């Protein structure tokens, strides 16, 4: 499975650890450089800065979807892969991560190489453009509109397994065998000694710049 991520220079140390974790768990990683990263493939016309990237994520997903073939897993740059998650690949268009209340999260998304997936992304882009929402709000909008998602086969995946959010240093003690963890846009949290030491044996943090 191809696992895709994108970032600018702010996430340079984190992206190195993410790619190591992808490779170590027998997936293929691909980086798209949104500016100043110095690694991966340059994505023409991409915005820079977290707030701008967040508002354009559906368009970036669509742009990358056209460049790549096959099933894609999109992970935010502040994620780590802890185990292989090939079981998510299947006969559907879009795989969405949900919290316990079935609200979709945008930190991880699975996008198949199908017309239905492209239709979903086009509708997501349209909602984001019309409402000036970020991708998370746009995802919530369209899955609650039966007319918009008509013709799209989508599937839910549990956040505790596929996008476990680490918001505080103590959250790592609550983890129960997730495949992917997400540091929720907080590079300072990713650097904390307690978290780094927990995953030091996986060697994801080797030679990364503080």
Q: Please identify which CATH superfamily we are dealing with.
A: Spore Coat Polysaccharide Biosynthesis Protein SpsA, Chain A
Percent of residues in helical segments?
25-40%
Arithmetic mean pLDDT:
82
- Total DSSP helices: 7
Distance from N terminus to C terminus (CA atoms, Å) equals: 30 Å
In the CATH hierarchy, the third-tier topology is known as Spore Coat Polysaccharide Biosynthesis Protein SpsA, Chain A
Walk me through what this model shows.
It is a single chain. Helix 2 (50-67) packs antiparallel against helix 3 and helix 3 (115-131) packs across helix 4. The chain is built from 7 helices and 10 strands. The protein has a 7-stranded mixed beta sheet with strand order 3-2-1-4-7-6-8, with helices on both faces. A 3-stranded mixed beta sheet has the order 5-10-9. It is globular, with a radius of gyration of 16 Å. Helices cover 34% and strands 21% of the residues. The mean pLDDT is 82. The chain has 210 residues and is α/β, with parallel strands linked by helices.
Please specify the SSE layout and strand pairing.
Blueprint: E1 2-7, H1 12-24, E2 28-33, E3 41-42, H2 50-67, E4 72-75, E5 79-81, E6 94-98, E7 104-111, H3 115-131, H4 135-143, E8 154-158, H5 159-162, E9 164-165, E10 180-182, H6 187-191, H7 193-198
Parallel strand pairs: 1-2, 1-4, 2-3, 6-8, 9-10
Antiparallel strand pairs: 4-7, 5-10, 6-7
């Amino acid at each position: 499975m191809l696992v895709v991520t994108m970032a600018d220079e702010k996430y340079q140390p984190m992206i190195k650890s993410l790619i190591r974790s992808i490779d170590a768990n027998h997936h293929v990683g691909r980086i798209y450089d949104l500016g100043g990263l110095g690694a991966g493939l340059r994505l023409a016309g991409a915005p820079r800065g977290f707030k701008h990237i967040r508002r354009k994520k559906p368009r970036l997903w669509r742009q990358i979807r056209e460049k790549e073939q096959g099933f894609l897993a999109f992970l935010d740059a502040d994620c780590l892969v802890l185990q292989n998650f090939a079981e998510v690949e299947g006969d559907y268009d879009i795989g969405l991560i949900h919290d316990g209340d079935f609200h979709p999260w945008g930190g991880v998304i699975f996008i198949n190489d199908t017309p239905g997936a492209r239709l979903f992304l086009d509708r997501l882009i349209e909602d984001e453009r019309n409402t000036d929402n970020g991708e998370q709000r746009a995802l919530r909008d369209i899955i609650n509109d039966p007319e918009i998602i008509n013709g799209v086969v989508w599937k839910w995946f549990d956040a505790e397994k596929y996008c476990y959010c680490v918001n505080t240093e103590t959250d790592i003690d609550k983890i129960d065998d997730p495949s992917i963890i997400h540091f929720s846009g907080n590079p300072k949290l990713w650097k904390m000694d307690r978290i780094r030491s927990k995953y030091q044996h996986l060697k994801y943090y080797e030679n990364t710049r503080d």
